[in-house]
Write a structure and sequence with these properties.
One of its GO terms (molecular function) is zinc ion binding. Keywords: Metal-binding, Zinc, Zinc-finger. This protein has about 120 residues and is mainly alpha-helical. The chain contains 4 helices and no strands. It has one domain: Four Helix Bundle (Hemerythrin (Met), subunit A), CATH 1.20.120. About 65% of the residues lie in helices and about 0% in strands.
Length: about 120
């Protein structure tokens, strides 16, 4: 199995997992929105979190899951274009171990660790 075939298999599996997680989060968020219209006194429930707090937690997780899916899709596009494994900043190769750990990364360790990078 070539490294590109391996990367495609891994990215495809990661994409399926990310899409399923995103769908579940969207359902959970919709449920929380529906719950917010129910007449409950959750602000005085010292045993649990409030619906607005939980809604914001799910909203933040939704943003992260959406970003992850977009990163995986971008990696699949780079793979299809023959640019997979090349740093988008310096053009050099991305370390194989880095790609094994996170096949959707866009930059090598050197570029990613420069000040000002996230």
């Amino acid at each position: 199995m070539t490294s590109e075939t391996s990367a495609l298999a891994r990215l495809t599996a990661e994409r399926a997992d990310a899409a399923a997680a995103l769908a579940a989060l969207r359902e959970r968020f919709a449920s929380l929105l529906d719950d917010s219209y129910v007449n409950t006194d959750d602000e005085h429930d010292i045993e649990g979190t409030s619906i607005p707090f939980e809604r914001e937690q799910v909203r933040a997780t939704l943003r992260e899951a959406t970003t992850r899916l977009a990163e995986i899709d971008a990696a699949l596009a780079r793979l299809a274009a023959g640019r997979f494994g090349s740093c988008e900043t310096c053009g050099g190769p991305i370390e194989p171990g880095r790609l094994d750990a996170r096949p959707w990364v866009r930059s090598c360790i050197g570029c990613a660790s420069r000040p000002g990078r996230r």
